[in-house]
Amino acid sequence: MEQFSMKFKDLTLQEKCQILTGSREAWCTEDLGGKVPYCRMQDGPSGLMVQGSVSVPCLQNIGNSWSEDAAYLMASIMAEDCIEHEVDVLLAPGVNIKRNNVCGRNFEYVSEDPYLSGILGKHFVNGLQDKGIGATVKHLCANNREYARFTVSSEVDERALHEIYLEPFRIVLESKPWIVMCSYNPLNGWYTSENRPLLKGILRDTFGFDGLIVSDWCAVHDRAKSLKATLDLEMPFAERSEKNLLDAHTRGFITTEEIDESVQRMQDLMDKVEASKAIRPTPRPRQERHNDAIKVAEEGIVLLKNEDGVLPLKNPKRLAVIGQQARYPEVGGGGSSDMSAKHGYDIPFLDRLLKQEYPDCSVRFIGAYKILPHLGFNNREWLEKIAIRDAYESEYSIVCVGDNRVLESEGYDRQSLKLPLVHENLVKHICEVNPNVIVIVTAGSAIDMTAWIDKAKAVIYTSFGGEGINEALCNIITGKTCPSGKLSETFVRSIEDNPINFETGNGFVERYNDGIMVGYKYYEKNNIPVLFPFGYGKSYATFEYSDLKIEKLGDADYNVSYTVTNTSDVDGKEISQLYIKDVFSMVEQPPKALKGFAKTFLKAGESKVITHRLDKQSFSYYSTMLKEWFLEDGWFEIYVGASSADIRLQAKLLVKTDEDQQNSKYDEFYNLPDSTNDTFIV
Ligand code: GLC
Questions:
Q1: Within a 10 A sphere around the Cβ of 440, how many other Cβ atoms?
Q2: Which residues neighbour 343 within 8 Å (Cβ) at sequence distance 6 or greater?
């Protein structure tokens, strides 16, 4: 471990101001000519953005996997790439909430649900940091659209802010990420990069985060104000930053102590980097990391439809594989996480993989449409005609369609929730001539499939699945792997059903009118039928739930257990979900909220007992009067289900905290310190 004589605290004031912005060498912090240590950061959540690194599935795939192990494994693959390329910090994971199905960057985020986002994000962070690579949780917060993300303020009411948009960050902080990245957007009128109530008041003082806060790239508008807000490091290098800070110090707007606090957190980061070098393992051969990427992709593949059990394919004789994406799958979305030109892996063609699996089967491939890298797709009429004829002559047709990094990208939102028209028409045309059409949809967010889904026999939904996606799909189609993914985002029947739709505010402010009713909470509360509900996904196996038990451990502290049985002859994994409902609350509550989940491997015929812990936090809501989470005694309903809309077991539970605890809360309420702002106690 390299020893540096000079500590950051011993630097001159000018030098301190210099190290609080990136160095001129991109992605690196400043080392003052070798006087102090530095670290190297790098994107991104779908793979280390360095040539030759493994392209892993996007975070949406982790969301659809509901697998803590998959989250951990995916991050650990990237940690090994970071070690190989001497990168100290990965700029991931993103845990922003998918409140709008058309947000261009949804593929980079986990879910519409804060609990699922937080738990999987936490395991992702552990997967990085257990191998000595720092995690950067981003983007704090309410960065839920790409349209005008640098300027339009996200106007969020206090309860929704805490219960929905901050909650993933609060949960992820349990894994002690080294860095939190602020977002570009203003929050309630103040840029998050200089929003002291957010960064110091909530992130540091309330959540207890003592790590480094970094700006999103070029997100700092006023360096002095951002330092005052305790944003420690402006990235990338900004010429004006040093002078901004020195001038602000001279005029007394920022103090030496404030500068030293940020300098100390820079020192802490470098100390972590230096110490972690000792625990970094020797990276395994790339092929092993690739094989893990296949496993991660498999975990997130969602079987949405499987009429007549057409899948897994059993001894097909004539198979048409249609669509260029069967050979050139989109590994990720567009923007700073785009690994398409980085991984260098020669992705095997899906049709050829299937031919290897079914040697006696006639497998025909036809591209049917052309992939235009910077435009999306376009029709190749004569190719489509051949594809239709091939389908007509085949026993089964696998049609590969979906979005790509042009249609789903950082920097702008989607123009439609539907497949590209070229693809939608192709599916419809193929379904007209073949009774056994299996549609494979690749996308980074919800797709409106209503135009064709009734015509298809089976539908497999895969996220942008990284370089291993075709091998993963082949394993699913052949039954080598039993599909186990479930949707982490509600698939609506039409974008008009989404409360946000294409709403982006008035150019200055976007009002989050949906409040706490985001995703499944909104659709269920408003009785809006959806295409596929949150938590939905099929398997080749079948599962039954039984024997719900609730054991009181203490004050508002319970174990909830139930049995899941694999009632089929196929080994598989089941994602069971635990929701609760606060029945008689004095504030508006959602019809249900996810408070636990488990992904359980069950051999054919096997049963397992699954247990979740429900504690005070599980039952509490964020009180805008008390300015903290509050547990209101009363009746709760406990739901255990295979999806948010498929509840298999339920129970009523009367939660009574001990009187003193309740009274002490009310005492606190009526004896709040005189607040500087107008807190009305009515
Ligand atoms: C981008 C993204 C952020 C990324 C950073 C560095 O604009 O918002 O997620 O890590 O800048 O590329």
A1: 27
A2: 47, 52, 53, 54, 55, 331, 466, 467
**CB of residue 108 inside a 6 A radius of ligand 1:** no
Among 43, 81, 113, 216, the active-site one is 216
Distance between CA atoms of residues 193 and 153, nearest Å:
12
Q: What tens digit of pLDDT does each residue of 325-338 get?
A: 999 999 999 999 99
Give the tens place of pLDDT for each residue, 422-465: 999 999 999 999 999 999 999 999 999 999 999 999 999 999 99
Nearest to 586 by CA among 632, 526, 625: 632
Q: Whose CA is nearest to atom 5 of ligand 1?
A: 217
Closest CA relative to residue 46, chosen from 118, 107, 125: 107
What angle, 0 to 180 degrees and rounded to 10, lies between the N-to-C axes of helices 241-250 and 256-276?
A: 140
**Whole-angstrom distance, CA of residue 460 vs CA of residue 303:** 5
Q: Is the CB of 216 under 6 A from ligand 1?
A: yes
Query: Would you say 241 and 234 are in contact if contact means Cβ atoms under 8 Å apart?
Result: yes
**Closest atom, ligand 1, to C-alpha of 108:** 9
- β-partners of residue 554 are 557
In terms of DSSP bridges, do strands 557-566 and 543-554 run parallel, antiparallel, or are they unpaired?
A: antiparallel
Whether ligand 1 lies within 6 angstroms of the CB of 138 is answered as yes
Question: Model pTM greater than 0.85?
Answer: yes
Does 216 qualify as catalytic in the annotation?
yes
Residue 563: other Cβ atoms inside 10 A: 16
